[in-house]
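Subject: for your reference before the review

Hello V.,

The reviewers asked for a structural picture of the protein, and I figured it would be easier to keep everything in one thread rather than splitting it across files. Below is the amino acid sequence we used in the manuscript, unchanged from the supplementary table.
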Amino acid sequence: MTAKTRLSASLQRLLKRSEEAVESPSTDWSVWFHEPRVKKGYFRLHRGGHETYVSQVLGVREVEEQLVLKADALLPMPEESFWNEPVTLHGEIRTFDAGIEEIVTFTAAVGDRVEFDGKPAVELTDLLDLKRTTQEYVAELSDAFSIELGLIWFGEWIEVHPSSMTVSRLFFDAELEGSIGEDGYAVPKASLRLEHGSPEIPVRMTIKRLRGGGFEGVIEKLDSLARQKVTAMVEEIWRIAAGLSQRKVKTEHSDVGYRSTSHDALASAFQPHIVLLGQDERWATLISQKGVLRQVEDDSLEAVSEAVAEARCDLIIGNLDQYGDKAIRVERLLRSVTKFRDIPRIWFTTVPPAVDLIAENDTSLQTGENGEPESLDLVDFGAFDLVSRKMKDSEIDRRIVWALGGTEIGKGSRCLLISQEGRLRYRIGLALSKAGFTFTSFNRLEGLVPLLEKQRPKWVLLDAVSFEVEMEALLSRATTWAHANKADVIVLSRGAKEEQIRSWLKNGASDIVLLDPSLRQAAYRLTIRMQGERS
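And here is what came back from the structure prediction:
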């Protein structure tokens, strides 16, 4: 147990000490955490006043009669400060079995970052206040789950559409005349259709009047096969509500009915969430293949800010032809908010800029009537990319994958960027991969030397903007390794004093490259520098 874990556990005991006994011994909880349905359930972690994270239970072990829970990497990915200070999380795991939802809550301290089957994971230690509740899950029905209930009501056959259901009850609103006693009304004949046009399923049920209005149909007898279908339907709705699967409604031209796409546990939660600003059928189709798509047709700044802020957003793709000059205002808005600044933003247009990733000449700064530089495009104002509407699907796919956090791009001599700025990683990575290099990136000082030994890059690029405070230590480690392995270290800076430049060069940097707003000139300088050495 590290010093951070011990400190976190100690604070946890002081803040969360409770006279309530744990519901069951740790051994019982250990058995529960090992159940397959737990690993397939919905795992949410809250940090008070901060982010809410989604994860997946990977396993549990006992250390000195204390449970240590191993969870998958947290999404969204926490900031680096999250791992360097005591953090307490409130956990909630929801599982589903035969129509019953089980909810287990607890508090835990964030432990070490570890690996599980070769993938990043995190340990949660000092689990306290473990509590378990169960309830019959009430599934809200939608157009994708249209159930029809037909019944004889005082001699008249009527049909209703329930608004919600459990595996044993249906809830609906209707104008039913007649007296219903405290024990309800035993319906002489009733049938269910689990979707429009499907065969009728006989059912025996009792109708009760709800105090708040509406009616409840209690299913007393149903064919076993039909009950399995009902249970499966309720579970599917639960999985969709929990983000474990998706359901797509058929379109007018579809040849099949509703199509359900099931994923592994928490696959939907781990899917990228992409916001499309504007309309474009081709781009919407391409984006939907990469993650969860949310489309914003209103081009007002209020609509954009609400769409980005109200839910998770991993990538923004905009139609410049539709937004026009408002696109610059959108960029300024998102760039001005720290939380939104690092969200990748790609715009597409019918008339793309004259240069894409690399510019040989300096950008003109002549201004037009509105005071804005005429030759600058959205990339100069902070956008990650500006591409042609007619770009090939394969290239669009490549850029989207890279924007969403691809780990490596390109083929050729290897270079490694050390930076915490997503836009720098995106643009320099695309440019160098196009110029014939293999590009990877890393975002912290810790673990740099082992990574260098593993990747053995020819060039190491250090972002002096991201690591202004740690630059001396970063440069020392990088140059020590580079000199021993015949590699070059290049410092990237947006501006530095003469003393800093002298110090960097004196301490082993091979070159200094200035970062311009669009990063096109920086990409050009890096390409010329690296291609010259490669030849």
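For the response letter, the relevant points are probably these. The longest helix spans residues 224-242. The longest strand covers residues 119-136.

Happy to draft the paragraph if you're swamped.

O.
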